[in-house]
Write a structure and sequence with these properties.
about 25% strand, Penicillin V Acylase, Chain A, about 350 residues
Length: about 350
């Protein structure tokens, strides 16, 4: 019978405690330094090496208070001058079961990407995609970049909420934006957060746009494609008005040029990606299943496509491919954040 020396057992336990205690201390210290709700940081995960991260923001980010006090977090990462690399495609259609969907390519030169789940206490739950390079993740994960995670709700580049309202933005040539001194001013991403948090349908989303000025300083001029489970519209901020182009059929497409005043033929001639997407949807009267929607995004993708995403507005399913890797599509659902389904 081999009896172990009790002194040796105590020494090994002491060594394990010496390892565990500093590690726990470092975790607690990091949580304190990051200044983010602990529940949020504990959900922060890297899903693949592109990299794609996911996080569920647990806590209140006081959107309306921040906008009222003009305290929306400023850009803390790269601040590139807008150029032709900002080239995105957004389309709206319906699958064979009549479920509305929104497809979107984000074409730019960054890589660090986050699928962010939020549920504000006074608004709707939503999922959105954040370009984390603007929050310092282009250099990898650091204490500095982790601190900036508290700003992620203010940086949606596209998204969908629990009521089936979805939105994506696309850069357009500089245009003198309308400014009404009687309205509050928000930036081009914060208005998308307002829509995701507070719009229960397309009409409510359009009312939000009509109730604010949009400041494009620090980024490109953009227009938006907004949709709900019934229809869609393109929103363009012009020098004299906000122009809303509602879909006249069961589908709609928008890329990187102003649609206001153009005929269908003129729009087709303005952008090859627009014509490809528009022709495909028109051929099928706007019917396109999620797999085919991702295939269409592949067909209009470019060398600098960062992500391709399909939002299903009834089921809440989200399919996302990174860096044109269409053989590796991640699937999530707004009802089960932030777990990957397959």
């Amino acid at each position: 019978m081999n009896l172990e020396n009790p002194c040796m057992v105590k020494k090994r336990r002491s060594k394990r405690l010496l390892v565990i205690l500093p590690a726990a201390f470092l975790v607690i210290l990091a949580l304190l330094l990051v200044d983010l709700p602990i529940g949020s940081l504990l959900t922060f995960r890297q899903v693949d090496n592109f990299p794609l991260y996911t996080m569920q923001y647990r806590g209140d980010y006081d959107l309306l208070k921040s906008l009222e006090l003009e305290q929306v977090p400023a850009r803390v990462g790269n601040n590139e001058t807008p150029n032709a690399n900002f080239a995105c495609t957004v389309f709206y259609g319906r699958d064979s079961n009549d479920e509305a969907l929104l497809g979107r390519n984000f074409d730019w030169k960054h890589k660090a990407t986050m699928l962010l789940f939020t549920h504000p206490k006074d608004g709707y739950a939503s999922v959105s995609i954040v370009d984390l390079s603007y929050l310092g993740f282009d250099q990898g994960i650091s204490l500095h970049s982790l601190r900036n995670l508290k700003s992620t709700p203010f940086w949606p580049f596209d998204g969908m909420n629990e009521r089936g309202v979805a939105i994506g933005m696309m850069a357009v040539p500089d245009t003198p934006g309308l400014h009404d001194p009687t309205k509050p001013t928000v930036d081009s991403l914060s208005v998308m957060r307002l829509v995701l948090d507070y719009a229960g349908d397309l009409d409510e989303a359009l009312s939000i746009f009509q109730g604010v000025n949009i400041d494009f300083e620090g980024g490109p001029w953009v227009h938006y494609l907004v949709s709900d489970r019934q229809s869609s519209a393109v929103v363009e901020i012009l020098s004299d008005r906000i122009n809303i182009i509602r879909s006249q059929q069961a589908w709609q497409v928008s890329t990187n040029f102003i649609l206001t005043g153009l005929s269908q033929e003129e729009a087709d001639a303005s952008c090859g990606r627009y014509k490809t997407a528009s022709d495909r949807l028109e051929q099928n009267q706007g019917i396109i299943n999620p797999t085919d929607a991702m295939g269409l995004l592949r067909d209009v993708s470019q060398e600098n496509t960062v992500w391709s995403v399909v939002y299903q507005l009834e089921s809440g399913e989200v399919q996302i491919a990174l860096g044109r890797d269409y053989d590796n599509v991640h699937v999530f659902n707004l009802a089960h954040p932030p777990l990957e389904i397959k």
